[in-house]
């Protein structure tokens, strides 16, 4: 399972890593993905279909761990090993491979604090909080921004989506023209925030930090649009 949001560059990198193993004897990689970040029913249906076809194992980032829990239990009961990637599920005994998202977000918030004046107005674009990844990045960013003495004037979800991130950012800057920094818990939302700030002629005055270090985010940093992004390893 490639994971929700088929247009996400991070998901594409995960897919490339999986497909590198497709040359191993006896290994056949099947890549599936719901169309949207919130496509939970579609992901459940795809997993059930693969189980019916006798799939040998499943790797997935669960967009809603509790909703995915029954089908994950079904998979393990059928003898198909499951691993979670990037987002922890709620099932016990399942391998998880991922970044320390809370620490990464805290480092991003600390970097913001090092580059803007204390008590500056900042916005926090959150991901999907029902996901462990989204919650961890939100928790880490809150802690880091508070520790830096910054004033969080808005904390809204951009649902990990570029267009949604842009729309949310437009609403935020309508109410606060003194904004000095933005933490976006995914690069996609960060790009949306940058577009909104650029359209409002505010980008030069706002420090924008993303998360994932996708190739387009790295290019944006080099172009002096995005101020920084947090890299994940692996």
Low-confidence stretches: none
Query: Residue-averaged pLDDT, rounded?
Result: 91
The CATH class of the largest domain is identified as: Alpha Beta
What is the first-to-last residue Cα distance? 18 Å
The percent of residues in helical segments reads 40-55%
Fourth-tier CATH superfamily name of the largest domain: Response regulator
- Helix/strand-derived category reads alpha/beta
CATH architecture descriptor text of the largest domain: 3-Layer(aba) Sandwich
Overall shape:
elongated
Tally the structural domains.
2
Strand order of the largest sheet: 5-4-6-7-8
Short description:
This protein has 234 residues and is of the alpha/beta class.
Structure in words:
The protein has about 230 residues and is of the alpha/beta class. It has 2 domains: about 10-95, Response regulator (Rossmann fold, 3-Layer(aba) Sandwich), CATH 3.40.50.2300; about 100-230, 3-Layer(aba) Sandwich (Rossmann fold). The protein contains 8 helices and 8 strands. Strand 4 (about 120-125), helix 5 (about 130-145) and strand 5 (about 150-155) form a beta-alpha-beta unit. The protein is elongated.
Q: Notable features of this structure?
A:
234 residues; alpha/beta; Rossmann fold; 2 domains; five-stranded parallel sheet; three-stranded parallel sheet; 8 helices; 8 strands; 44% helix; elongated
């Amino acid at each position: 399972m490639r994971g929700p949001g088929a247009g996400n560059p991070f998901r594409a990198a995960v897919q490339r890593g999986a497909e590198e193993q497709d040359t191993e004897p006896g290994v056949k990689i099947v890549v599936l993905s719901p169309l949207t970040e919130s496509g939970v029913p579609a992901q459940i249906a795809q997993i059930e279909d693969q189980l019916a076809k006798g799939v040998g194992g499943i790797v997935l980032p669960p967009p809603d761990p509790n909703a995915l829990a029954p089908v994950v239990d079904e998979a393990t009961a059928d003898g198909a090993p499951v691993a979670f990637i990037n987002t922890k599920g709620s099932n016990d005994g399942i391998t998880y491979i991922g970044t320390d998202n809370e620490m990464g977000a805290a480092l991003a918030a600390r970097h913001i604090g090092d580059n803007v004046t204390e008590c500056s107005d900042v916005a926090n674009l959150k991901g999907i909080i029902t996901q462990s990844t989204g919650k961890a990045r939100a928790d880490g960013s809150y802690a880091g921004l508070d520790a830096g003495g910054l004033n969080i004037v808005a904390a809204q979800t951009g649902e990990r989506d570029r267009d949604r991130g842009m729309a949310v950012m437009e609403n935020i800057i309508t109410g606060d023209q003194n904004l000095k920094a933005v933490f976006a818990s995914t690069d996609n939302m960060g790009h949306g925030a940058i577009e909104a700030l650029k359209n409002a002629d505010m980008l030069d005055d706002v420090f924008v930090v993303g998360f994932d270090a996708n190739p387009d985010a790295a290019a944006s940093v080099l172009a002096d649009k995005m101020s920084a992004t947090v890299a994940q390893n692996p």
